[in-house]
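The instructor's notes for this session suggest beginning with a concrete chain rather than abstract definitions. Hand out the sequence below and ask the class to guess, before any prediction is shown, which regions might be ordered.
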Amino acid sequence: MNTKQQHKESKSWNLNHRDTIIVVALEKENNQTNNSKIIIGDTTMKHNKMFSRFGVALIVALLISFAQQSFAAGTLAGTVISNQASVQYNAGSNLRTGTSNTVTVTVGYKVSINLSTTSSSTTTVDSTIINKAFYFYNAGNYSDDFKMTVANVPTGWTAQLYKDENNDQLWDGNDSLITSGTALYTDTTIANRIPLILRVTIPRGSQAPDDTTANITVSIESNGTYLGSIVRVGGVGTQTYTASITIAKPVISFTVTPSYSSNKIPGDNQTFTLTITNTGHAATSGSSTVTWKYDDTNLENENAVSGTASAGTASWTIGSLAALTGTASVTFTADIEQTSNNGTGVPAGTTITNGTSGSQVTYNDGLHSWSEDVASTTSFVVGQASGAYVSVFSSATQSGNPGDSVVYYIRVKNRGNSAMTFTLSQAQNGGDLDTTHWFTETWGAIGTQPLVTSSIAAGDSIDTVYVYLRVNVSGMDGQTIIRNITATPGIAGATPNGASNYNPTVTITTTVTAPSLSIVLSQAHVYGVGTIANPAPGDTIEYTLTITNSGTGNATNLTTSNAIPTNTTFGPDSYGTGKGILVDNVAKTNASDADGATYSGGTVTTGPFTVTGGGGTKVIKYRVAVN
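After discussion, reveal the predicted structure:
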């Protein structure tokens, strides 16, 4: 017997003498012959048919001990069972006896491993720790060491086996780690109950997907290092405990459904429907918060319906989401910004992106509160708004005499959301006269029509557009020239939002201010024996020429010419010496001088004068004598 075997046998005796007693009781229970020998250590006991009271008491004690220790799997391994037969016979009258040889056997090791339970099932969320407590028993018939191996651990998970030192079935810092697959739980004596805890750490996320089950196993097998010369003769060498852990957690999906306007130009309202869905196998616990990031620079008048929206962040509070089918929807509206760039807003071609980083759903899975990034971006490109606001600096109504030049000062403001040129055109809009108008951006330059302006930045204006026309020379007082001046954008696009932002056409009206003259020649009998109807020779008659301008334009360069009637003689001194003509009650000389009146060759001429419109008059008088 080697040293290791001696150590083991000695240890077995010291630790397990009660088990050895069980073997004795078992031999009696099995009705072995009265002459059998039971070897206990180095002690041999001989039993006869008759035994003492002490022997009876001993057997009773052994039976009681066996009943108390019945969980052991039979006779202690290594026990030597020997047997020798005795013979008694008569040789004639002589009584003789004899004995047989002694035969022995050594009890082998029958492995037996018992677990308090072989499996357990748990349903849990991820990012947690599960502790599974169970017991391991050495139910074999010898002390042994056992290898304990943890297997089938999913990627990213950890599973560790501990001895529950205080046997409270709860993991704590004093429990001893049994390294999976390598460590031996050594010298487990017979019927020793070892409390174990399998501690499983479950990660967060994709390594613990919803609706999946991990079957983590703990295998306990006899290692047999301490058996020495003891022979392993069978039994169950391995037992397995399986911890089935099923992940059931909320799985949140987040979609955004935009409802864009057809043009997507500044001022247009956009609507976004946010749908939050739980497709996981566990409901969320309590209320959840939805946070959505939007483009605060290019959107305005934002509204998170039944929520809040400010500085680029919209948020809502929603109720719990049921497992598999839980759904909630919220709505966000906003206008495309139309404040910058002098009220023309976001430039055409700008990409507006919403739902960027920071959009998330915060929910509780029953153990933890999670904030999951649910960036679900949605983008659109701002469309083209095109249009002008045309206005007239001076009055949109002017007047002019026939042949006069009239100038209008026009402002063209680009109300679109990108730089562009505009084409100025004209169209008659009623009126009495049809007169072509001419456009130019340079004062005094010959105009054209139509006119393509220089490029105007979004929101800017050209204030130096001049519209010329010449009043028809044939125009009569009060007649009108009416024109619509329209600015057509050089880039096609949608009409800008807001009535105050769009006015592509202005109407200008030019009224003819021509003179309208009433020319009346009257006569009066001022001296003589006759009457005006029948003057006598030598009588004096006064002729009066009254010119009245009832028009709105002045009659300029007006001259008169009146030949004196036949059979009369001009009165050269009618209003003073050498003054035979009276203009507006002012006596004028007859000579051709600068006083605006002359008598020559039998004709009285006056002028030039201006007779103002609106009732201006010119009265010319001279006298003749009847021959």
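Then share the key points. The radius of gyration is 64 Å. The longest helix spans residues 3-29.
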